[in-house]
């Protein structure tokens, strides 16, 4: 069962409206969404919906009927909060008003245009009140972040003006705010907890419970391999600990469905402003700018690359957050290509490369190619000693282009994806 905090709202006419939602499991295993709403002191209206099917069946982000019901309830809760409702406790009273205490009710009015505009103008209020609504769903499962499409393939789906952000060469991170005690609150894009980075986790735990940040562990002082190599370690050397101190969480989005990015960005700015004393420099708000056409996207891309970033991310202003899937509302542009390939073997280099590992990788259609990994002679020699341990793992390969046979041209192994 998933229970959410009751909400309350005062209309322009001075009436107090109450609303609550919860999800239970039926004996058949379906999800039951129950809503109670009404005017304070009036009759309670009960609404019920049974969710009999999940979504994305057979895919990584597949949901059961119960999980789908919880997602729908969270979405409905978010819409109420965006319309001006707040958690009942915020208005006073230990547990908030009880819906069951009422006696006659008219249909619940929708927010007027002036109320809606007022709600949009107060991003901080929405951001703070939205956090508790998500807490019930994050205890058992960390949401998978939204993934980007390639601008070269889907650029026509971008609606201008659009938002752009620099593309970091770091590790994708989902930050669960408000976690109590010493429980981990930083997770990779495949839900693996990062074991250390306590200077970041301490800050994230102090932010509103239920708020979920989408960002990247990054520092311009170290390259990608150095960042990955240190954040995934379970045991730290003194050198690792020093490196950790330089790593920051660069935040570029909030994971919340059914609210457009433009609004999410307003909320994110408000959160950073409200909690700036706690955040300090440990969390960084990602630079976000507006472009008016594809030419400006390319100009900004070149500018970001010159500044040392990997490329550019493009976001539709009205784009929604697609948990666990790729979206046309989030696109990436880089001057080089990269992809993940399975390691199927390894061999020793020759000449100056003697003693160093060379990987054999396989394309999706079974073509095998050789790939030289990045790294020092010592690092690659160590990999060669334990090469068999990496067979079956995925290697991120950077390359110039694909040949007519679909094989990467001038491939370089960047990192083995065993850190997520």
TrEMBL record:
Alphabetical GO biological process terms: DNA recombination; DNA repair; DNA replication
Main location: virion
Subcellular location as annotated: Virion
UniProt keyword DNA damage present: yes
CDD domains: OBF_kDNA_ligase_like
Domain annotation ATP-dependent DNA ligase family profile: ranges: 258-334
Protein's UniProt keywords contain Glycosyltransferase: no
GO molecular function, one term: DNA ligase (ATP) activity
Pfam families: DNA_ligase_A_M, DNA_ligase_OB_2
Biased composition, class Low complexity, residue ranges: 97-120
PROSITE patterns tied to this protein: DNA_LIGASE_A2, DNA_LIGASE_A3
Entry keyword set: DNA damage, DNA repair, DNA replication, Ligase, Virion
Known function: Very low-fidelity DNA ligase that seals nicks in double-stranded DNA during DNA repair. Together with the viral repair DNA polymerase X, fills the single nucleotide gaps generated by the AP endonuclease. It is not essential for viral replication and recombination. Displays a very low adenylation activity towards DNA with 3'-dideoxy- or 3'-amino-terminated nicks compared to regular nick DNA.
Name under which the protein is recorded: Polydeoxyribonucleotide synthase [ATP]
Species whose genome carries this gene: viral metagenome
């Amino acid at each position: 069962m998933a229970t959410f905090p009751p909400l309350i709202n005062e209309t322009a006419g001075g009436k107090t409206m109450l609303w609550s939602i919860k999800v239970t499991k039926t004996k058949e295993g379906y999800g039951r969404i129950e809503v109670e709403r009404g005017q304070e002191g009036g009759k309670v209206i009960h609404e019920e919906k049974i969710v009999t099917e999940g979504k994305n069946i057979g895919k990584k982000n597949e949901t059961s009927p119960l999980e789908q019901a919880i997602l729908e309830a969270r979405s409905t809760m978010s819409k109420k909060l965006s319309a001006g409702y707040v958690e009942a406790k915020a208005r006073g009273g230990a547990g908030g008003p009880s819906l069951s205490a009422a006696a006659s009710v008219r249909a619940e009015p929708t927010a007027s245009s002036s109320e809606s505009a007022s709600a949009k103008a107060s991003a901080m209020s929405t951001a703070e009140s939205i956090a508790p609504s998500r807490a019930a769903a994050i205890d058992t499962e960390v949401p998978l972040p939204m993934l980007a499409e390639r601008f070269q393939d889907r650029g026509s789906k971008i609606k201008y003006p659009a938002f752009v952000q620099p593309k970091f060469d770091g590790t994708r991170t989902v930050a669960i705010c408000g976690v109590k005690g010493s429980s981990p609150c930083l997770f990779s894009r495949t839900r693996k907890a990062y074991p250390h980075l306590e200077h970041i986790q301490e800050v994230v735990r102090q932010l509103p419970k239920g708020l979920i940040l989408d960002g990247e562990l990054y520092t311009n002082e170290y390259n990608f391999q150095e960042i990955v190599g240190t954040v995934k370690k379970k045991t730290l050397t003194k050198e690792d600990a020093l490196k950790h101190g330089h790593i920051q969480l660069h935040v570029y989005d909030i994971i919340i469905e059914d609210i457009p990015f433009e609004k999410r960005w307003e909320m994110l700015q408000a959160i950073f402003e409200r909690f700036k004393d706690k955040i300090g420099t440990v969390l960084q708000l990602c630079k976000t700018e507006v472009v008016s056409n594809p030419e400006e996207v390319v100009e900004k891309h070149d500018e970001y690359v010159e500044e040392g970033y990997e490329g550019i991310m493009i976001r539709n202003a009205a784009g929604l957050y697609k948990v666990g899937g790729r979206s046309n509302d989030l696109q990436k542009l880089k001057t080089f290509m990269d992809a993940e390939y399975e390691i199927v073997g390894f061999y020793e280099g020759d000449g100056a490369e003697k003693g160093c590992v060379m990987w054999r990788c396989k394309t999706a259609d079974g073509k095998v190619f050789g790939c030289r990994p990045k790294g020092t002679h010592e690092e690659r020699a160590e990999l060669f000693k334990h090469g068999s341990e990496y067979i079956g793992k995925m290697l991120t390969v950077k390359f110039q282009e694909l040949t007519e046979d679909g094989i990467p041209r001038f491939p370089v192994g960047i990192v083995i994806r065993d850190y997520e």
